[in-house]
Amino acid sequence: VSGSTIGIYMQTEGVLVIDTGEIQNRNGETEEPARNIIRQGDYIISFNGEKISTKRELIDDISELDGSEVTLGISRKGESIPVSVTPVKDKKGDYKLGIWVRDDTQGIGTLTYVDQNGNYGALGHGISDIDTAQLLNIRNGALYKARILAINKGSKGNPGELAGYICYDDRNILGTIEANSRNGIYGQFTGIVDDAITLKKMPAAYKQEVKIGTATILCSTDGEVKEYDAEIRKIDLNHEDTNKSFVIKVTDKELLEATGGIVQGLSGSPVIQNGKIIGAVTHVFVNNPTKGYGTLAENMIDMTNTID
Predict the structure, then answer these.
(1) Residue 283 is a catalytic residue
(2) Is 252 assigned a catalytic role?
(3) Which of 19, 104, 115, 252 is flagged as catalytic?
(4) Digit-coded pLDDT (tens) for 92-105
(5) Which residues contact 169 (CB under 8 A, 6 or more apart)?
(6) Which of 5, 242, 249, 288 has the highest CB neighbour number within 10 Å of its CB?
(7) How confident is the model over 100-148, as pLDDT tens digits?
């Protein structure tokens, strides 16, 4: 088990459409060429029959438009469909399709564990797009070392966060990201155990072993992984959202003083009970940051085994 802070960088499978937008044409009139054709959450995977993977490739293709109708290959809810869009010439004389797009995302989280085969699990919940709220389809990604620079303390109605930066350098790559699922991100850990990454050998508990009562959380707020007191307040093995299988409350005075409880960046922090990892922290209660949800270790390990 870990509890170390990690940086996360992922590229999407295709170019994600965040929204459609209006364009003012050369006559000063407003047009929205992609409206009711392209939807928020679509992934653009081809342009006039040519595969595209990045926003840069899409921008380059759009820059060469001459006003003719274009055919975009769209991945929508797992189904590939072609759509046709007629570009609009804007006030500057450039042709536009009227779409807002994104092809990558990054953030800070917590490494939960690495198994004996080098497979890791982290975050305890999937990474969703901030605008569409949809789980991101990923093409590739990597874990990096990260450093915490400040803590924005959580309070009622105001979720806090760990503020830091990701060390984007090949020497600081810790692993690959091969899956982004509801119960976390998974891949192969390729880093080494050093001052930045802590690993401690520990057995995993079956879900039936999880009990209401005392527990601890392994997490890092200052570069060092520490164990903090907590309590399991509620267990729901049949919750429809498996990353909300139990409710945990932070009781440790040191952690409460530092963070106010559970904050963004602590997702994936291992939860320990009776000498075993029982799960990972996943969400904070917005109106009470001392409490949050967790996913079961068994759920995460099952996902690791599926990938392996």
Answers:
(1) no
(2) yes
(3) 252
(4) 888 999 999 999 89
(5) 144
(6) 5
(7) 999 989 999 999 999 999 999 999 999 988 888 788 888 889 999 999 9
